[in-house]
């Protein structure tokens, strides 16, 4: 007769299973490095939904036996590419362990990383703090990926320092992990917003900032080169003040706005569609091809602005004598400047509205402060008077149309993200078109309520677990803890198996 039982439970924080599922949907590889024994580590894996019942568990002892060929049982359970891939990796591990060369250690490490990264999840148990850091270093060495380590205790400090990005969780185990990390979080569930929302926004803003910065530089300053071919390299079409203020004043605000405020989708949509995170993993927004396209776009804009003005001023003198060198320079500068501003504002409605408001507010003050007779040092008033001639304004308008119509056509034909693959374009379009969910008013949560996640017997069949994990049998003041882990945001799962190594 059973009189009673005592159990110690290590409970998960709220939102841990949901966070791991979102990270896996975002093509982020999740590894768990823990000092617990194998049974405890596997139960934690099932509790946080890192492991599922349909996964095949591949243990370290199966690899240590060095199988040359698959057993008949494995041949029955495996078919197709899974059988081929598993047999290849196992044979490679066996051959690497049997060799006696000096590179034996490196070959075994490479084979282990290849096998582990082909799995959906990896759990390493009975590892020391030094071994955690060595595993992170091993993955960085052989896979050339960006690693993120997250932990909450002093035993995770080495791992956090070794990873490219270190995240510390402030908890009951002290503040050592937080003090040595790049980012500090209060809960593990906050990691989903750090990566899927703010991390993706940061990548998007940096890429668009670089693209527009290179574009406006090439489009605005390459006219100096084209003019040098016609002047015999004896003069320049832009004065020193324009060259100095072009990047830091005339075109600075639109590019900085993109780099600071750009959001393709909202935070809720970013969490609802974690597949958008793959864009940053594959470097779809800025690479050598994008840089080449940006360079050609900027050069074409400068060519159109310069040669349209050159053609218009070749044999024409307007009513206010606008066919001189100064008027030509002002026309080329105005054409390229307006083309750059319109191009940067394409697809950014918030930026267009802000620019219109600033122009409306600043125009009266500029008109009063800077009269039409103002002449800069070393300049004649002919250049400023050129902007009052209708012919010059039509030339500027023609250059603006020629420079912006092709890019607008491409944006309308291929969508707002023409540089992305078709599958990712469909996801982005779906995320942008789907309406935001309405805000629901909820009743106040009682003070004594709490969420409970039990890690008891998650790997066993249903039995007396309901009786043991009943809510009224647990105390409300139970402690919450997290399991340190290692995230690899750039690896793609291939097999439904899990290696668990004892280092």
TrEMBL record:
<keyword id="KW-0460">Magnesium</keyword>
<keyword id="KW-0812">Transmembrane</keyword>
<keyword id="KW-0547">Nucleotide-binding</keyword>
<dbReference type="GO" id="GO:0005886">
    <property type="term" value="C:plasma membrane"/>
</dbReference>
<dbReference type="InterPro" id="IPR023214">
    <property type="entry name" value="HAD_sf"/>
</dbReference>
<dbReference type="GO" id="GO:0005802">
    <property type="term" value="C:trans-Golgi network"/>
</dbReference>
<keyword id="KW-0472">Membrane</keyword>
<feature type="transmembrane region" description="Helical">
    <location>
        <begin position="333"/>
        <end position="354"/>
    </location>
</feature>
<dbReference type="InterPro" id="IPR032630">
    <property type="entry name" value="P_typ_ATPase_c"/>
</dbReference>
<dbReference type="GO" id="GO:0046872">
    <property type="term" value="F:metal ion binding"/>
</dbReference>
<feature type="transmembrane region" description="Helical">
    <location>
        <begin position="241"/>
        <end position="261"/>
    </location>
</feature>
<feature type="transmembrane region" description="Helical">
    <location>
        <begin position="391"/>
        <end position="413"/>
    </location>
</feature>
<keyword id="KW-1133">Transmembrane helix</keyword>
<feature type="transmembrane region" description="Helical">
    <location>
        <begin position="290"/>
        <end position="313"/>
    </location>
</feature>
<keyword id="KW-0067">ATP-binding</keyword>
<dbReference type="InterPro" id="IPR023298">
    <property type="entry name" value="ATPase_P-typ_TM_dom_sf"/>
</dbReference>
<keyword id="KW-1278">Translocase</keyword>
<dbReference type="GO" id="GO:0140326">
    <property type="term" value="F:ATPase-coupled intramembrane lipid transporter activity"/>
</dbReference>
<dbReference type="InterPro" id="IPR001757">
    <property type="entry name" value="P_typ_ATPase"/>
</dbReference>
<protein>
    <recommendedName>
        <fullName>P-type phospholipid transporter</fullName>
        <ecNumber>7.6.2.1</ecNumber>
    </recommendedName>
</protein>
<feature type="transmembrane region" description="Helical">
    <location>
        <begin position="209"/>
        <end position="229"/>
    </location>
</feature>
<dbReference type="GO" id="GO:0005524">
    <property type="term" value="F:ATP binding"/>
</dbReference>
<comment type="similarity">
    <text>Belongs to the cation transport ATPase (P-type) (TC 3.A.3) family. Type IV subfamily.</text>
</comment>
<feature type="domain" description="P-type ATPase C-terminal">
    <location>
        <begin position="178"/>
        <end position="414"/>
    </location>
</feature>
<feature type="region of interest" description="Disordered">
    <location>
        <begin position="478"/>
        <end position="503"/>
    </location>
</feature>
<dbReference type="Pfam" id="PF16212">
    <property type="entry name" value="PhoLip_ATPase_C"/>
</dbReference>
<dbReference type="GO" id="GO:0007030">
    <property type="term" value="P:Golgi organization"/>
</dbReference>
<keyword id="KW-0479">Metal-binding</keyword>
<dbReference type="InterPro" id="IPR036412">
    <property type="entry name" value="HAD-like_sf"/>
</dbReference>
<feature type="compositionally biased region" description="Polar residues">
    <location>
        <begin position="494"/>
        <end position="503"/>
    </location>
</feature>
<dbReference type="GO" id="GO:0045332">
    <property type="term" value="P:phospholipid translocation"/>
</dbReference>
<dbReference type="GO" id="GO:0016887">
    <property type="term" value="F:ATP hydrolysis activity"/>
</dbReference>
């Amino acid at each position: 007769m059973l009189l009673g039982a005592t159990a110690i439970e290590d409970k998960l924080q709220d939102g841990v299973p949901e966070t791991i599922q979102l990270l896996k949907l975002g093509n982020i590889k999740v590894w768990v490095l823990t000092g617990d024994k194998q049974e405890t580590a596997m139960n934690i894996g099932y509790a946080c939904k890192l492991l599922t019942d349909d996964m095949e568990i591949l243990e370290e002892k199966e690899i240590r036996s060095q199988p040359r060929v698959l057993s008949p049982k494995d041949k029955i359970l495996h078919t197709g590419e899974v059988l081929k891939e598993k047999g290849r990796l196992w044979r490679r591990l066996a051959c690497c362990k049997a060799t006696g060369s000096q590179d034996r250690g490196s070959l075994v490490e490479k084979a282990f990383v290849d096998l582990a990264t082909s799995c959906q999840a990896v759990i390493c148990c009975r590892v020391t703090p030094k071994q955690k850091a060595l595993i992170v270093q091993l993955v960085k060495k052989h896979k050339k990926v960006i690693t993120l380590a997250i932990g909450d205790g002093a035993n995770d400090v080495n791992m956090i320092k070794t990873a490219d990005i270190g995240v510390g969780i402030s908890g009951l185990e002290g503040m050592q992990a937080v003090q040595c990390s790049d980012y500090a979080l209060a809960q593990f569930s906050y990691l989903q917003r750090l990566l899927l929302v703010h991390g993706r926004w940061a990548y998007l803003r940096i890429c668009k900032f670089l693209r527009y910065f290179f574009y406006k530089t090439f489009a605005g300053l390459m006219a100096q080169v084209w003019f040098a071919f016609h002047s015999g390299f004896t003069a320049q079409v832009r004065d020193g003040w324009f060259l100095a203020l072009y990047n830091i004043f005339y075109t600075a605000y639109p590019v900085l706005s993109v780099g600071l405020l750009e959001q393709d989708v909202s935070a809720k949509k970013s969490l609802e569609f974690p597949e958008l995170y793959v864009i940053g993993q594959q470097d779809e927004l800025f690479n050598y091809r994008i840089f080449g396209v940006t360079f050609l776009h900027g050069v074409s804009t400068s060519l159109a602005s310069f040669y349209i003005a050159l053609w218009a001023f070749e044999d024409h003198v307007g009513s206010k004598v606008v066919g001189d060198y100064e008027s030509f320079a002002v026309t080329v500068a105005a054409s390229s400047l307006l083309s750059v501003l319109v191009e940067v504002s394409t697809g950014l409605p918030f930026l267009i509205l802000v620019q219109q408001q600033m122009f409306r507010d600043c125009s009266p003050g500029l008109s009063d402060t800077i009269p039409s007779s103002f002449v800069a040092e070393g300049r004649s008033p002919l250049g400023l008077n050129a902007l009052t001639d209708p012919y010059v304004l039509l030339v500027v308008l023609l250059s603006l149309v020629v420079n912006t119509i092709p890019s607008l056509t491409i944006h309308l034909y291929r969508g707002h993200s023409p540089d992305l693959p078709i599958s990712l374009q469909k996801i982005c379009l779906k995320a942008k078109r789907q309406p935001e969910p309405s805000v629901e008013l909820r009743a106040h949560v009682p003070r004594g309520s709490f969420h409970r996640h039990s890690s008891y017997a998650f790997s066993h069949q249903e039995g007396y677990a309901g009786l043991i994990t009943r809510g009224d049998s647990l105390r409300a003041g139970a402690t919450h803890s997290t399991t340190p882990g290692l995230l690899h945001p750039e690896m793609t799962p291939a097999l439904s198996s899990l290696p668990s190594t004892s280092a």
